[in-house]
Amino acid sequence: MAKKQRGAGDDNLPSREQIIEFLESAPGNAGKREIARAFGIKGSARIALKARLREMKAEGLIEKRGSHLHKPGELPPVTVLEIIRRDSDGDLIGIPNDWDEGHGRPPELVVTQARNARESAPGIGDLVLARIAEGGRAPNDTHTARIIKVINRKPATAIGIFRGLPGGGGRVEPVDKRQLKSFAIAPNARNGAEEGDLVTIEPIRGRPMGLPQAKVKTVLAEQSTEYALSEIAIHRHDIPSVFPEAVLREAKEAKQAGNDHREDLTALPLVTIDPADAKDHDDAVYAEPDPEHEGGFILWVAIADVSWYVRPGDAMDREARKRGNSVYFPDRVVPMLPERISNDLCSLREKELRPALVARIRIDSAGRKHEHKFIRANIRSAAKLAYPQAQAAIDGKPDAKTEPLLESVLRPLWRAYEVLAKARDNRGPLALDLPERKILLKPDGHVDRVFIPPRLDAHRLIEEFMIIANVAAAESLEKRKAPGLYRVHDQPSDVKIASLSDFLSSIGEKLPKDGVLRPSHFNAILDRIKGTPNETLVNEVILRSQAQAEYSAQNYGHFGLNLRSYAHFTSPIRRYADLVVHRALIETLGLGPGGQIIDDAAELDEIAAEISAAERRAMAAERETVDRLIAHFVSESVGATFAATISGVTRSGLFLKLDDTGADGFVPASTIGGDYWVHDDVHQRLIGERTRGVYQLGDRVDARLVEAIPMAGALRFELLTPARLDKGARPPARGRAGARRKAAPGRPTGARGRRK
Fold it and tell me: Contact at 8 Å (CB) between 572 and 304?
């Protein structure tokens, strides 16, 4: 316990140095209340303390994470580190895998392994879950961290496409756009690889003339198969895709849940509403008017009871925790649980008896939740509906399946949604408008078309039902002081807000300087720029200013949804976090077997860090696969001209997003003719040093595709649109803004092309 002290001065407040020293002694766990208690500050003096903390925050001495204060750039007690090198003493050096660049260069930590560690030591490029040593520093004043476990090993082999050459040998073209160098394969080192095969290779040490040498280790897939592109991502990100025999055996031996510890809710006409091609069904919903509250509703949200089949510590549980979540590719799914569990026993299939954990929620006429309870039950889904099918019924075009459900099930659901929408609008979550493109594949696995699916009220209905059920789950855990996992989203960091404010000022917009920043402040700006040329640009920049959502044992709220308490409860088939929440609810509410309270705070922190890292891994793999598919789609159009938007600005060039496909490409600054180009990071633009020409994030341009490397997802473009002149633009000082880039002689300066 901190010793009560008094700071210098007449205000009897702790000094800035004392506050920082106290925060260092309690990393990540101290807020205004704890500081006041430690220094004996009471009554009106708390107002002065609040003012001092606000000043320190403005000066960049401290930052806020939820209700907790910490020094800028402070590491959490448990975090994911990437091993980047060994130092001169042979010790492993790691950096935080998720580091806010606004805090400067990431800290380097000496990473040690427990003496009794069962697994082999990590290598360069591996990701490890580590506990930061309290006060622990190496002799060179570097922080130290102890490995809890290796969570993602960098493959010892590279991956690429085999191309045969006369004489029996060949070369392997890489599939990583960051390492576009080929390897030579000797005739006796191809290991059965044929033209176009996706292979893993092992580089051969030495310094040969010409291309580096390698040998083929494994043929992963034929390039012509539909699995080749997602196989690349699975291998590169070390995503577990094959279930161990013990896991499959447990799934095969699982038996249908009975009636023990369950209420019979089979008479409720719950329905599932999902994408038309969904293979598993986590959730079913129903709504009915609340007889005790005029205009209110009773909502029923039934979620698959995975905890009945997947028990803590068994083989399926260990594998699910390792995977963290299902990974969704355009051509396949890598599931968190075996198909016997996810697509059969736990899937809320139409007309079939299934176990569920059901949230019964009462809302008033304004959409406010005023009561909820959780019920372990057996249910029977009345119908399996697709989003467009349910929407068509409400829009006056029911089919044979939805016609009988229209008045008794669908219309009450929509009326309940309208009430929930009132509460959502009053709450004011962050309302970014960035449409998401979808890829439709042909039977052979190649891209048929890329499109933006319509956003239907059917989608929004399910989202709102899931959100209120997630809130109910979080509040139930908090009310009973039961440890659990929360889905948290911190407010933007001070560094990112300062950068965003500078940018908004350049287009005549501004954020409030004082007070607590809320989603409504961003929404007001988004409303004002709607329909203007800056709409896409501002949406993108505001998105990039946001923190990344994650899982945490500490609840510091969800900024984007503008909710104080939020937990993931609604998808235990595909997210391990939801399974943890289910078990905590079942245990604390006394709902029968399969429950679990994880009292060990360290273990809960570890799970949160692991599954947050698994989520980021899945997102990267999914994004890369989409990039490769679309690069294949447009690769036959080298030389064609495309309409695009500048989606990123860096020192080395411009990133583009094509209008029709959403494909991402790059324009090297060295190919933009006629000037030296300077990166202005504040205004997200390149400025011509001589002409004052400007290319800015969000600008509309025409660009010619000059090179495509489909298997790497890499597209290179040449700009055809001239830079817009801005005589008021001033390149930042040479030491501040980044390297200047000069176009190669003879490059076009921007004559407009025409789409071919």
Answer: yes
For residue 358, how many other CB atoms are within 10 A of its CB?
A: 25
SS (H, E, C) 151-220: EECCCCCEEEEEEECCCCCEEEEECCCCCCCCEEECHHHCCCCCCCEEEEEEECCCCCCCCCEEEEEEEE
Can you tell me the distance from the alpha carbon of 629 to that of 330, in angstroms, rounded to the nearest whole number?
A: 9
- Dist. CA 288–CA 284, nearest whole Å: 14
Q: What is the DSSP letter of 50?
A: H
| CATH number of this structure's domain 16-70 | 1.10.10
The answer for residues whose C-beta is within 8 angstroms of residue 231's C-beta and 6 or more apart is 198, 220, 221
pLDDT of residue 589: 97
Rounded to an integer, what is the distance from CA 736 to the centroid of its chain?
A: 31
Domains 78-152 and 638-742 in one fold: yes
Does the pLDDT value for residue 303 go beyond 90? yes
- Could you read off the pLDDT of 452-499 as tens digits, one per residue? 889 999 999 999 999 999 999 999 999 999 999 999 999 888 888 888
Cα-Cα end-to-end distance for the chain: 72
pLDDT tens sequence across 246-285: 999 999 999 999 898 999 999 999 999 999 988 899 999 9
User: What SS3 state is found at 376?
Assistant: strand
Strand 327-328 relative to strand 369-380: parallel, antiparallel, unpaired? unpaired
Q: Which residue has the higher pLDDT, 178 or 16?
A: 16
The Cα–Cα gap between 233 and 619 comes to 11
Q: In CATH, what number does 638-742 get? A: 2.40.50.140
* Cα four-point dihedral sign 87, 89, 92, 98: negative
Q: Give 281's strand partners.
A: none
Residues 6+ apart with CB under 8 A from 55: none
Residues 6+ apart with CB under 8 A from 358: 265, 300, 301, 302, 303, 374, 375, 376, 377, 379
497-533: buried (b, 16+ CB within 10 Å) or exposed (e) per residue? eebbbebbeebebebeeeeeeebeebbebbeebeeee
Which pairs count as long-range contacts for 108-112, CB under 8 Å and 24+ apart, including other chains? 108/84, 108/142, 109/81, 109/142, 109/143, 109/144, 109/145, 110/138, 110/142, 110/143, 110/144, 110/145, 111/81, 111/83, 111/144, 111/145, 111/146, 111/147, 112/144, 112/145, 112/146, 112/147
CATH of range 78-152; options 3.40.630.10, 2.130.10.10, 3.60.15.10, 2.40.50.140 = 2.40.50.140
Over residues 400-405, the mean pLDDT reads: 97
Query: How many Cβ atoms from other residues are within 10 Å of residue 209's Cβ?
Result: 4
Using CA atoms, how far residue 521 sits from 431, 499, 503, in Å, is: 11, 16, 15
Q: Which two tokens stand for residue 235?
A: 């291998």
The CATH code of the domain at 158-224 is 2.40.50
Q: How confident is the model at residue 9 (pLDDT cuts 50, 70, 90)?
A: very low
Specify the pLDDT at position 712. Answer: 82
Whole-angstrom CA distances from 615 to 228, 239, 696 are 22, 11, 31
Give pLDDT, residue 136.
52
Q: Give the ranges where 514-575 is alpha helix by DSSP (H).
A: 519-529, 535-545
Residue with tokens 């959780």: 374
Identity of the residue numbered 30: A
* pLDDT at position 569: 97
Q: Give the CA radius of gyration of the chain.
A: 28
Supply the pTM of this predicted model: 0.81
Structure tokens at 607: 């799970």
Q: What is the residue extent of each domain of the chain?
A: 16-70, 78-152, 158-224, 245-483+566-620, 638-742
Pairing of strands 213-222, 183-185: parallel
Rounded to an integer, the average pLDDT of 224-243 is 83
Please count the residues of the chain: 756
- 684-726: pLDDT as tens digits: 889 998 888 999 888 899 999 999 888 888 899 999 999 988 8
CB distance 283 to 356 below 8 Å: no
